[in-house]
Amino acid sequence: MARPIAHSLMNFAGLAKAQLLGRRAARLWGAVDSTTASLALVLLPTEQKNHESEVAEARDTLGEEAFDTAWQEGKAMTLEQTVAYALQDEPL
Known about the structure:
Helix content: over 70%
Mean pLDDT: 88
Distance between the termini: 32 Å
Order of helices and strands: HHHHH
Radius of gyration: 12 Å
Oligomer: single chain
């Protein structure tokens, strides 16, 4: 059950990145990082490669400091907070 949740959150982060919502994507990826670590989930090699590529691209676009701040905000979220955040509308 935990793996589908992590995948869904990764998809929400990718969607945010595609919509040029870099801070939102970084927060969600930070939450994914925290969730996978707390549940001892390991991404498959292809998943990990894709994830790292998307994160690196978003980090370059947003800038190191802003990305890291948003990432840490995401890591601090509980799973329930993360799901609620992923489902809420983000103003442009």
